[in-house]
Design brief:
single chain; alpha/beta; D-Maltodextrin-Binding Protein, domain 2; two-stranded antiparallel ribbon; 17 helices; SBP; Bact_solute-bd_prot1; signal; Sugar ABC transporter substrate-binding protein
Amino acid sequence: MRRRSIFGTSLAVVVAMGLSACGGGDGGDSGSTTLRVTLVNHVWTENIKAALPEFEKQSGLKVEVTQLGEDQLSDQYNVKLNAGSSDIDVMMYRPLQEGKLFAKNKYLADLTDRAKSDSAFEFGDFQAAPVQATTYEDKVVGIPIITEQEVLYYRKDLLEKSGFSAPPKTLDELKAQAAKVEADNPGVAGFVARTGKAAAVTQFSSFLYSFGGDFVDANGKASVNTEQAKQAYAYYGGLLRDHGPENISTDMSWSEAMAIFTQGKAAFYTEANSLYKNATDPAKSKVADTVGFAAFPAGPAGSKPYNIPSWALGVNDASENKDNAWKFIQWAAGKEQSLAQQKAGVPGARASVWANPEATSTYPKDLAEATTVSTANGVGHDRPLVVKVAEAREIVGQPIVDAITGKDSAASADAANEAFQKFLDDESK
C-alpha cells in the first residue's frame, strides 16, 4: 500500500458466525461447511460482515472471519503461508505490495479456470488494469475488490478568482494555473503533493505514465532514465519546488500533503480518489465547500493515471476447501456486492458497476466523472511490480527528492536506473 490503513485499528477481531451450528469439521477437509476467511480492517470488510448472513443462508456455509490490521495481517501471512498452513481458505491481500511475492512462492491458488469458466461471475466484466495486477505469469491468482485512481483535487474558489473557468486539462495548464493562483493569493501554494522518497512514488507514477514512461520497459529492463522519465521527474519536482509550499519538506506522505490542502494552503493537489472525504468533510477540511475534482491532466502521452487494485481476494493454495473458497469470492466480488460496496464509497473493479449511475450516486458528481476517466485510461500499477517493493520504491524515488531540492534530476535518474537494474538482476536470480 502507499499508506498505512486509515480504517479501524490493528486489533485482531475474530468473527465466528453461527459456528455452534456448523457441524462442518475443522475447515481443513475438502467440502467442509466452515470457511476460514482472513480480511483486513477496512470499510469493505465491515460491509461484507454485515451481509454475511445472506451468504451463509444461500450457500449453507458458515464463515469464520479473522479481521486484522495491515501489520498484523502481513505478520500472519508471513508465518502461516510460509509454513504451508491450511487454516486460511480465503485471503485478502495487496496485489501491488505482496502479490508478486505470494504468487512466486505459490501461496496463491490458480483461479484461472474457475474465473474464466464461470459465466455467472462474468470475469470479463473486471477492468483490464486491475486484473493485470492480480495476474501472474498469465494465471489469475486474485480477484480485485477495491480500486484506487489518481485524480486532481483543486480549489474552485481560487480558480474562479484568478479567472479560470475550468480546471486544467493538461500538465502544461496545471503549471500555468498553479503559478497564476499562487501569484494572486500570497501564502497559498500553487500545488502540493507527496514528497517523501518512497511515499511519492505511487502518485508520481501517473506523471511518469502521462509523459510516456514507466518503471520497467517491455523487456523487463529498468527504464527510469529514459527521456520521458527524466521529463516526468523534472516536471514533478519542479512543480513542487517552484509552486509548492514554502520551506517544503521532502518527507511528506498523503497525510501531510492532505493537511496542507485541507487547511487552505494549496490550490491543486494530486492524490488517490479514495481519500476524498478528508477534503469534503467539514469536520476535517476548512475548504470542504470549495473543493473540486478533475481527471488527471494529460501529458505528452495523454492522461494516464493509475487504476489499481489496492486489495484483492485470493485462495490459499494450501487450503483443502478451495471449492467453497471460490463460492465466497463469487459472492463477495459479484455484481450485487460490488454495487453495494461502491454505493457505500468503496470503488470496485467491475466495468458494469461503474457504468451504473446508482453506483456513484453518493459521490461528488465531478469526482465520479474524474474517476470514470481514470478507469478508462488507467495503468494497472503505481509502483514497480517486484517482490521487494519497499526497496524498489527507495531507489526509483530518489530522483523525485533530488528534483524537488534542485539537484540534477537527470543525473539522479541515471544513477537510479543503474541501481534499479542491479536490483532487478539480483531479484531475478
